[in-house]
Amino acid sequence: MSDKTIKITLVKSLIGSTEKQRRVARALGLTKKDQTVEHHDTPIIKGMINAIPHLLKVAE
User: Fold this and answer.
1) What pLDDT is recorded for position 1?
2) 9-19: per-residue pLDDT in tens?
3) What is the CA radius of gyration of the chain?
4) Mind listing the pLDDT tens digit for each residue in 36-51?
5) CA nearest 60: which of 9, 20, 1?
6) Per-residue burial over 21-58, b = 16 or more CB atoms within 10 Å of its CB, e = otherwise
7) Residue pair 24/52 in contact by the 8 Å Cβ criterion
8) Which of 16, 41, 42, 43 can pair with 4 through a Cys bridge, CB separation 3.0 to 4.6 Å?
């Protein structure tokens, strides 16, 4: 595991998104608009971010 962390913010509402997109956001720990979480910078997290980039803002 790397020591590097990334901050992920949900910038758009999940209303109108598909069920798969909602599940990815929930797996990242995001449930509400403008909520921010921190995760380790791993390939798994990067893949989840790439699944819903239009809903997220990522800061390294």
Assistant:
1) 53
2) 999 999 999 99
3) 11
4) 999 999 999 999 999 9
5) 9
6) ebebbeebebeeeeeeeebeeeeebeebbebbeebbee
7) yes
8) 41
